[in-house]
Design a protein that fits this description.
single chain, 563 residues, alpha+beta, Beta-Lactamase, Heat Shock Protein 90, 6-stranded antiparallel β-sheet, 16 helices, 18 strands, flat
């Protein structure tokens, strides 16, 4: 064999080996990229479905809670009058049945035939569920309709006045329809209740049964799904491979599971691989054009990746901006709520005294001065939030004790209305003149004191309706400990206490809370907010630099941009 032929065959052999390796690597990369995209798509579908179901359940709970609040304030609690409110609730919740049980009295039901005695009602599922949940708002297990024995239903229970109940009997057809609509090629969704029984599935044989009962070999998969809040997994059955994504509906413990057949998931990838294999034969025959073609192919994919990266970076920047705007709007709403409530109470108090001819000039002047302070604080708050993402806040010297007292004065009317006292402890010999941004300190104190008040309002410890504030220096910082003897903070809540901007309270708070307060302290005051003790009392420590220079302030703002 001639040297030229040897060289030619060597080049062609090298090109064939190189292109075969390229095909393998490219297929692996495409499969990895496709796997990520598929999982992201499945996770998005599962998350959207979970959120939709949670919002649906939350709507029913809000209606039940509103019903409980209305009926407990009724002067006329006759069955006829209460039934009118039940009918309003039915219309609002799009249901056919609801009921009120006043402790020790017969059940009041929209269906007149359901006239149960106290003994009979307290043996029924709604009361037993409420009792098991210590008479906190609850959702029952899924049960069959007592009328047709087919439709799945739940009871939405809102206790009031101790152990009286407002209950909505709700069909979950809407939820079932939401699950059934999650369909795309090779994929379907399943809804499983907290007892691991299937509520919705395209396979009717599985409905009402556990996965492990029908398919014992998948018991491990069922255990994995119920051991986590959400996650990804895969399994093989009857010669086919499947991918699954699951998520949890927190209020009920139900699991949303979306399954996708792997062959369908990677059909495009496999098709692309076959096409490339055919191209390799063409490139082997036309060896002269191989290098040009492969370079063109490489450039094409590189440009595609770069374009995707550019699009992704643009979306990230856009999402960040939208998030900042959302925080700004939520912050304004949260921080103006309290001053507006105080103004409303002041005006109501003056009108009442004016009608009773007990409004003196001194009292009028005092209330007007307090109103002016609240208005000034509101104006300052609006200015603060308008400039929050600018770095031109004024640093000044002021007395921290007076700053705290002014915040307490703004909250005093609301605190007095709820019989909540505030104690301030500090070393009388210590110097509490600080150089910082007083407006930011006031905003943070408002959040912490409002949270403490809310905690006291939901607790049953009526002897501990006080908030204790302790001020003390520590190194080059000032520490303010705010303690309340309220309901405390659970271990689960502690994990994500500062991680998201939604309130941890079910009916109180507007959602900005500790997340935004800590953001202000870290980014603007060179300080921090930490949980020192979670109960009896709950103590939050607000610390910040005593003498904040413009350089420190600018440095904090710059660091905030990169965190």
């Amino acid at each position: 064999m001639k040297l030229q032929q040897k060289i030619t065959f060597s080049i062609m052999g090298g090109m064939l080996i190189g292109f075969t390796a390229f095909l393998g690597i490219n297929h692996s990369m495409m499969q990895e990229t496709a796997t990520t995209e598929i999982y992201d798509k499945l996770k998005g579908k599962a998350s959207d479905l979970t959120r939709s179901i949670e919002e649906w359940l939350e709507t029913k709970q809000r209606i039940a809670y509103a019903l409980s609040q209305q009926v407990q304030e009724l002067k006329d609690k006759s069955p006829e009058n209460v039934r009118n409110y039940l009918l309003f609730a039915n219309e609002a919740a799009h249901i056919n049945a609801s009921m009120i049980y006043f402790k020790g009295k017969n059940l009041i039901h929209t269906d007149l035939s359901w006239n149960l005695s106290p003994e009979e009602e307290e043996k029924n599922m709604p009361y037993q569920t409420a009792q098991a949940n210590h008479f906190q708002p609850a959702l029952s297990q899924v049960f069959k309709s007592p009328i047709n024995k087919i439709d799945n239903m739940i009871a939405v229970i809102a206790p009031f006045n101790g152990d009286s109940l407002a209950t909505l009997v709700v069909e979950i057809k809407d939820i079932e329809e939401k699950v059934k609509k999650i369909k795309f090629e090779g994929s379907y969704a399943v809804l499983v209740d907290a007892n691991r029984k299937t509520l919705v599935s395209p396979n009717n044989e599985l409905i009402g049964k556990k996965l492990s009962s029908n398919l014992p070999e998948l018991t491990w998969l069922e255990d994995e799904i119920f051991s986590k809040q959400s996650g990804l997994s895969s399994y093989a059955m009857k010669g086919k491979d499947y991918l699954i994504v699951f998520d949890t509906i927190k209020e009920t413990g139900w699991k949303v599971v979306i399954t996708l057949e792997k062959d369908m998931a990677f059909a495009n990838v496999n098709a692309q691989t076959k096409k490339l294999s055919l191209l390799s034969v063409c490139f082997f025959v036309f060896s002269t054009l191989f290098i040009i073609a492969i370079n063109s192919f490489h450039d094409f994919w590189r440009h595609q990746v770069e374009r995707k990266n550019d699009e992704y970076e643009f979306l990230l920047a856009h999402r960040s901006r939208i998030s900042e705007i959302g925080e700004l709007i939520s912050g304004i709403n949260h921080q103006l709520n309290q001053p507006l409530n105080s103004l409303s109470l002041l005006s109501t108090s003056m009108l009442s005294k004016l009608k009773n001819n007990t409004l003196t000039d001194e009292l009028l002047e005092q209330n007007l001065r307090m109103s002016q302070q609240v208005i000034t604080l509101m104006s300052t708050t609006i200015g603060m939030f308008r400039n929050f993402y600018r770095f031109d806040e004024n640093i000044s010297q002021f007395c921290l004790k007076k700053c705290i007292e002014s915040v307490i004065q703004v909250l005093s009317i609301d605190f007095n209305r709820h019989n909540i006292g505030v104690e301030i402890h500090y070393d009388t010999n210590a110097d509490f003149n600080v150089i910082s941004v007083d407006n930011f300190i006031q905003q943070v104190l408002l959040v912490l004191l409002q949270n403490a008040k809310d905690a006291l309002l939901v607790t049953q410890k009526k002897n501990y309706t006080k908030i204790q504030i302790s001020i003390f220096p520590k190194s080059d910082c000032i520490c303010i400990d705010i303690a309340d003897w309220g309901e405390g903070i659970s271990k689960e809540a502690k994990i994500k206490l500062f991680d998201n901007i939604k309130s941890s309270k079910k009916y109180l708070g507007s959602g900005i809370g500790l997340y935004f307060a800590r953001k202000i302290v870290r980014e603007k005051l060179e300080g921090d907010i930490t949980l020192i003790q979670s109960s009896s009392p709950t103590i939050f420590r607000f610390s910040f630099k005593k003498f904040l220079s413009k350089k420190d302030h600018s440095h904090a703002c710059e660091n905030a941009q990169f965190t």
